[in-house]
């Protein structure tokens, strides 16, 4: 469905909107509404305890022009196995390359400036927790879940007996979504502790770089989780249903 044909109501989910037009994620970011882990929430649910009403949010979504050509990267139209390759080669690779780099930066900043800015000590611990979680998470996706999904795509009749060992694909998907939510919540806390990644006056270059990389990492994580939770996983569940 194109965004032009979508009628947005309070019962439309956040994930449906962002899946149809990724640029609309900017509106949700502005109002601190989670579009990746919270993608299953309706607008009515998402606006609870927020400073924006459902009607105001719908009006913004309807008039917002992201300037993004949705035809250039319409992830929802991509073949499932191609989307998996994209996730591995783009987002998983980004995580693998940047975890050690950010770890080095944030460790150094916490050691040097932690006494004066005690929030850095907590941010450092939280990032270590997220790094460990994501490292294990990626291994499970690349070695277990993604190969099974690809088998569903390529050999739907034989895939169930050939690869599956967890009963139904919903089981590992629920686990992956729970882990996404855990890491997403960690980064929400990091953002709050860092005052939206705002460095203090006179901060050194490493301090600024650490916060810049943390914010960049969180932004990449949002799209990463959105593509899995709101596009790949629902399509994989439907694909498995069709193969049984």
Helix content: 55-70%
Q: Termini, distance in Å?
A: 27 Å
For the biggest sheet, the summary is: none
Strand content: under 5%
- SSE topology string: HHHHHHHHH
Radius of gyration: 19 Å
- Number of H/I helices: 9
> Shape from CA axes?
globular
Can you tell me the residue ranges where pLDDT is under 50 for at least 5 consecutive residues? 68-72
Mean pLDDT: 88
Please tell me about this protein's structure.
- The chain contains nine helices and no strands.
- With 244 residues, the chain is mostly helical.
- The chain has two domains: 61 residues, SP0561-like (Orthogonal Bundle), CATH 1.10.3910; 166 residues, no CATH class.
- The protein is globular and about 60 Å long.
- About 2% of the residues have low confidence.
Would you spell out the secondary-structure blueprint of this structure?
Blueprint: H1 14-20, H2 25-30, H3 43-46, H4 54-63, H5 80-113, H6 119-154, H7 159-162, H8 170-193, H9 205-243
Helix pairs in contact: 1-9, 5-6, 5-9, 6-8, 8-9
């Amino acid at each position: 469905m194109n965004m032009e044909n979508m009628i947005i109501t309070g019962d439309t989910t956040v994930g449906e909107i962002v899946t149809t037009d990724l640029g609309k994620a900017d509106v949700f970011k502005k109002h601190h509404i989670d579009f990746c882990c919270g993608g299953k929430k309706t607008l009515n649910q998402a606006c609870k305890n927020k400073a924006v009403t459902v009607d105001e949010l719908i009006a913004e979504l309807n008039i917002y022009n992201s300037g993004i050509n949705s035809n250039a990267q319409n992830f929802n139209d991509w073949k499932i196995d191609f989307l998996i390759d994209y996730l591995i080669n783009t987002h998983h690779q980004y995580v693998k390359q940047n975890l050690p780099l950010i770890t080095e930066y944030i460790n150094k900043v916490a050691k040097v400036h932690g006494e004066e800015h005690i929030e850095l000590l907590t941010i450092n611990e939280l990032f270590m927790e997220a790094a460990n979680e994501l490292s294990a998470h990626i291994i499970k996706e690349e070695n277990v879940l993604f190969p099974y999904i690809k088998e569903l795509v390529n050999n739907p009749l034989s895939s169930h007996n050939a690869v599956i060992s967890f009963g139904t694909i919903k089981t590992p998907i629920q686990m992956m979504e729970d882990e996404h939510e855990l890491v997403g919540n960690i980064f929400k806390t990091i953002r709050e502790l860092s005052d939206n990644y705002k460095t203090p006056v006179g901060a050194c270059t490493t301090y600024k770089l650490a916060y810049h990389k943390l914010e960049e990492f969180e932004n990449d994580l949002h799209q990463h989780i959105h593509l899995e939770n709101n596009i790949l996983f629902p399509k994989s569940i439907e694909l498995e249903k069709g193969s049984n």
